[in-house]
Amino acid sequence: MKRRRSVVTTGRTARDAYSGPPRLGLRAPRTRPSPALEAARTESPAAPVAAARAAAPGEPGVDPSSVDLSVDLAPRRPGALVLQNPVLVASGTFGYGIEYGEVVDVERLGAICCKGTTLKPRAGNEPPRVTETPGGMLNSIGLQNPGVDAVIERYAPLWATWRVPVIVNVAGESIDDYVSVVRRLEGVPGITGIELNISCPNVGKGGLQFAVDRDAAASVTAAVRRATELPLIVKLSPNVTDIRPIARAIEDAGADAISAINTLSGMAIERRTGKPLLGNVYGGLSGPAVRPVGLRIVYEVAQVVDIPIVAIGGIASLDDALDYLAAGAVAVQVGTAIFADPEVPLRIADGLRRYCAERGLASHLPLVGTALPARPNRPSAKGVEYRP
Ligand SMILES: Cc1cc2nc3c(=O)[nH]c(=O)nc-3n(C[C@H](O)[C@H](O)[C@H](O)COP(=O)(O)O)c2cc1C
Fold first, then answer.
1. CB count in 10 Å sphere of residue 284
2. Residue identifier of the C-alpha nearest atom 9 of ligand 1
3. How remote is the CA of residue 141 from the centroid of ligand 1, in Å?
4. What is the 90 CA–ligand 1 centroid distance (Å)?
5. From ligand 1's centre to the CA of 197, what distance in Å?
6. pTM
7. More confident residue, 385 or 97
8. Running DSSP on this structure, what letter comes out for residue 259?
9. Quick count: other Cβ atoms within 10 Å of Cβ 123?
10. CATH number of 14-373
11. In testing the pocket of ligand 1, which one of 263, 312, 323, 336 has its CB within 8 Å of the most ligand atoms?
12. What is the band of 60 on the pLDDT scale with cuts at 50, 70, 90?
């Protein structure tokens, strides 16, 4: 019988799921997965992992310096995007990396996702553009950036001298926009990969975002895939009813990896006037408040794709990162938390190394996917299908 590709839930709890091996996807990969991903899938029975997670720190473990935190985000392109550790900085929250050079040892990051970059310079939205919210913030920066040519001229020469890979976050309003930007980035020293921000209005579809429509998401991914050999990460929006068909379409269209999530659509009211607070009316919600949504989306996507998943959304501590690994991500991005403390990403990477060492794990990969259903095809009325 043909195996169903859609997610079917199980009534088992995450703890029950530890009794089987971690699963990252339902389908046999069509291309050879990276050894790292393969290891996460097969080598580590989840029960010892659960025991390792529960083990008290300080018990005999391995030397932290011998823990291998490396992760391959483009297994279909061997060696093209292998990170030294799985903690990246999220687009729009770390500028072009250069701004933080004085405060943070950027070379120790897993990778830098730079600000959203468009074909032409963009001035961004009307102010006010940011406001604090309970457990997070709203932003409506509006992709302010100097345009791809200026990014290449101003920043790429310095990036080329860094060991840390820089992934350029690309935005556009049409497929032609995206393709033109990635064509310019192709072959530029200092640019290691592309992260496609598809949460932008698609002018060809009357303003509908590429990210909310399966066919539009597939079309833009396929067009960019044809235009570049660079590793391609496609970033998902949480503002959809069902992420799974969109994620599958993006994988089928040739993405090397998926990152999730972008911000949730929101707004705030200026109490004094009773009017919308943000100049743009709408803004993107980020920070700890969005973490449960990000977790749910990573958990769902991990069950329907075989490419690596990079988790984003409210990550501010090692515990947050561990939760996302358990939900099926192989790496994480830190965003809003950087505004309060730019050292957070490095602290998470160092903490993860110690965490693995103290529990006798040679790598973080055995921690990946431990929360996923052990028998994903078992039908249930609970869990992931809960949609109020
Ligand atoms: C001020 C700000 C600017 C952002 N700019 C971009 C952007 O240019 N491109 C993009 O894909 N995501 C952008 N994001 C979204 C973040 O990369 C991230 O997906 C989101 O904030 C969720 O992660 P967090 O809760 O850790 O911040 C931005 C977020 C913030 C707060």
1. 22
2. 116
3. 10
4. 6
5. 10
6. 0.87
7. 97
8. E
9. 9
10. 3.20.20.70
11. 263
12. low
